[in-house]
Amino acid sequence: QVQLVESGGGLVQPGGSLRLSCAASRSIFSINAMGWYRQAPGKERELAALIYSIGSINYADSVKGRFTISRDNAEKTVNLQMNSLKPEDTAVYYCYIRDIGGYEYWGQGTQVTVSS
Known about the structure:
This protein is an all-beta fold and 116 residues long.
């Protein structure tokens, strides 16, 4: 069974930066999309950033200009560079991979807390 292993979460002050990384425990055949979702307390899980195998990228409006997603299909890794962090970015961030058959893989989540 494939597991997604996340790293890089933590506590940061407003205006600071964090980099999240995610690696699959073994190869996933034909990835369609890789990315990050997030869930704040009391809210539904929402897309933060998604990158497709063809290279196109979707960002949530709230993170555009501040977050940058990157991926390495060969290494089965996806990263999220988060700059100019705000308290409203506080959430559990989940790594996500979808293969071309539509099967979805989720990480266990990593906490990001933005607070002074």
